[in-house]
Amino acid sequence: MGMETLFGLVILFILIAGAVFVIKELSGEGIKLGGYGPSPFKRRRYLMDSNAEYGLFKVLVELYGDNYYIFPQVHYSHLIETSKSNWREYRRLMSRIDRRSADFVLCAKADVSPQLIIELDGPTHARASRKERDEFIDAALNGTGLPILHIAVGPYTPESVRKAVDKALAAR
Questions:
Q1: 118 CB neighbour count, 10 Å cutoff
Q2: In terms of DSSP bridges, do strands 68-75 and 101-108 run parallel, antiparallel, or are they unpaired?
Q3: Which residues lie across from 70 on neighbouring strands?
Q4: CB of 40 closer than 8 Å to CB of 31
Q5: Model pTM greater than 0.85?
Q6: Per-residue model confidence as pLDDT tens digits over 129-172
Q7: Phi, psi of 74, deg, nearest 5
Q8: If phi over 0 gives left and psi between -120 and 50 gives alpha, with beta otherwise, what is residue 154?
Q9: CA gap 148, 144 in Å, rounded
């Protein structure tokens, strides 16, 4: 075996080893948990993403806590699913919802069935990408019988929230 061939094999080995290292790091496989070093995770202080969400949550609990369970931050993939049987189409549709969450879901106390989704629309909902996301979610929910209510961030009263929620619940 010539020196050039040996040199080529060494370079190939280094490239393969580097690729394996990169793949492990990107996949998280290289992260060791359970006593093998510090965790790459930290605890979030609050479940809600903003004070506005927490404020609306308190109003919803006050108004509807006796009749409904109010769950914050529920992934849409727990609320709806696609009926497409083709795996590729199923994955394409599910990937549009599986990492997205509803701000609040009102569920019947009798069987914890979702009755209403509530989205709190802040300034980020004015961005084109967010508008497209909201339109997709609204369209996905349209034929399911599960209504969605958008409430704009801003001054609202418990009475205005009650009026909007009652109207959305009655329309189902």
A1: 23
A2: antiparallel
A3: 106
A4: yes
A5: no
A6: 778 888 989 998 988 989 999 999 988 899 999 999 999 999 87
A7: -100, 125
A8: left
A9: 11
Q: What is the pLDDT of residue 129?
A: 75
Query: What are the strands of the beta sheet with 68-75, ordered from one edge?
Result: 68-75, 101-108, 114-121, 148-152
What distance in Å separates the CA atoms of residue 152 and residue 134, rounded to the nearest whole number? 13
Q: Name the phi and psi angles at 48, rounded to 5.
A: -75, 150
Return the residue matching tokens 């979610």.
Answer: 137
CA distance 13 to 8: 9
d(CA 104, CA 101): 9
Token pair in block for residue 56 = 């609306």
In this structure, the number of other CB atoms found within 10 A of the CB of residue 60 comes to 22
Q: Which residue has the tokens 């001054």?
A: 155
